[in-house]
Amino acid sequence: MYGRYSSDWRSQQNLSPSNTRKTGRQWVHLLLVFSLLSMWSGTVLAQEMLKATGVVKANAEATISVNMSARVSELPFREGDAFVTDDVIVRFDCSRHRAVLKARKAVEKARRLQVKNNKRLVRHQALGRNELAVSIAALEEAEANSDEQALLVSQCTVRAPFSGRIVRQLINENETPRSNQPLVKIVDTTRNEIELIVPSKWLNWLSVGTGFRFVIEETGSEVAARIIRIGAVVDAVSQTIKVTGEFTEKVKPVLPGMSGSAIFASSGS
Question: Does 256 sit behind a cis peptide bond, omega within 30 degrees of 0 on the bond before it?
Answer without folding.
Answer: no
